[in-house]
Amino acid sequence: MTPDLTQTSLPQRVVIGLSKIGMALKSHSWQNAAQHGLTPTQGQILALLRSKGTAGMRLSTVAHELGVSAATTSDAVTTLGEKGLVRKAKAVDDGRAIAISLTPQGQQMAERVADWTDFLLDAVSELSEVEQEVFLHGLIKMIRKLQEQKQISVAQMCVNCQFFRPNLYEDADHPHHCDFVDAPFGDRDLQLDCPDQAAAESTTAQQNWERLSRSISQKES
């Protein structure tokens, strides 16, 4: 019997593919964390704190960034504290709030667990450079839509950044400018999680997105 190839739409098949990658990520996160005596959430907290530098983060911010409940985050941080991997102190900007930061031992552990997604690099390398760039464009669009729907926390992407100047130059390879590093860059260098990102005002972010989206659509048409 010939299978009906129209039973699932193209968007549905894309979602199926993404779910399979998601399952691989979940499985690998458990394996990687278990090797170091951690849960995936604990490992993600360490990696997140490492990416933010030495300033520390509030508990509520950690929960928001990871998309987990405050209770889950609190339990994980308590355990990490008992392991000597994180410390709690008063937040610099608010003495009533608590900030969490890595201990020297926690920094070392964070270095070990931060690369848990690297197993996907071989799979991504199967795509050509053009395919990788198109895929990156697609991811940016999807992440932004999920952010608008409040399904995920706002990522530190170029399109949301006050330093981002889209399509400032006529150079097709380097049309954009980053005011933070004062340098031009191209679509393939667009960041999804930049530690130096500073959130732009909503109007500016929307204008940046519209300009970038138009140029991406023109390239892919």
Rg, Å, rounded: 20 Å
CATH secondary-structure class of the largest domain: Mainly Alpha
SSE series: HHEHHEEHHHEEEH
Low-confidence stretches: none
- Our count of domains comes out at 2
What percentage of the residues does DSSP assign to strands (E)?
Answer: 5-15%
> Total strand count, please?
6
Mean pLDDT: 88
CATH homologous superfamily assignment of the largest domain? Winged helix-like DNA-binding domain superfamily/Winged helix DNA-binding domain
At CATH level 3, the topology of the largest domain is Arc Repressor Mutant, subunit A
Number of helices: 8
- Inertia-based shape: globular
Terminal CA distance reads 37 Å
**Percent of residues in helices:** 40-55%
Biggest sheet layout = 3 strands, antiparallel
Classify the secondary structure makeup into a structural class. Answer: mainly alpha
Named at the architecture level, the CATH assignment of the largest domain is Orthogonal Bundle
Strand arrangement across the biggest beta sheet: 1-3-2
